[in-house]
Amino acid sequence: MRVVGCFLEHGDKFVILLRHGHKPDGNTWGLPSGKVEAGENDIEAAVRELEEETGYKAHPSELEHLGDFDFVSSSSQPYVYATYRASLKDLHEVRLEDAAHAEFEWVTAKSCNTKPNLIPGFHELLRLTGHIK
After folding, report:
1. Does residue 3 have a pLDDT over 90?
2. How far apart are CA 4 and CA 46, in angstroms?
3. Largest CA distance in the chain
């Protein structure tokens, strides 16, 4: 399975989203992300997920590929997490996808890393992408 995620960044902060408690991995914080659908490539999926989950319509050329990382989901399913960055010049007013997320925050990597309720693998992702040393 392939999943895409994107650091939507402005300055030294990026957006994280809190999943509703009734969702898989509920009450955890993570990046705007989701599964790559049939017929999509990773960039198309990342653009779609950013728009669905934050309201930000990225142009594919805005996305910088940070790497593909192997993880195992909380249900023990292995997946590849294709990770991107979109660096914004102006702060984006986030519009949440109400069905999936309850809250959002703009956080620094350091403040994000101190959260106890990150989605499984997020602490490691921050290190793998160079956000945390």
Report:
1. yes
2. 6
3. 39
d(CA 94, CA 53): 8
CATH class for the region spanning 2-128:
alpha beta
User: How far is residue 104's CA from residue 17's CA, in Å, rounded to a whole number?
Assistant: 4
Structure tokens at 28: 């955890």
pTM for the whole thing? Answer: 0.94
- State the SS3 of 53-111: HHCCCCCHHHEEEEEEEEEECCCCCEEEEEEEEEEECCCCCCCCCCCCEEEEEEEEHHH
Q: Which of 67, 5, 2, 64 is nearest to 32 (CA)?
A: 5
24 three-class SS: coil
Per domain, the residue ranges of the chain are: 2-128
Q: What's the pLDDT tens digit per position in 88-101?
A: 999 999 999 888 89
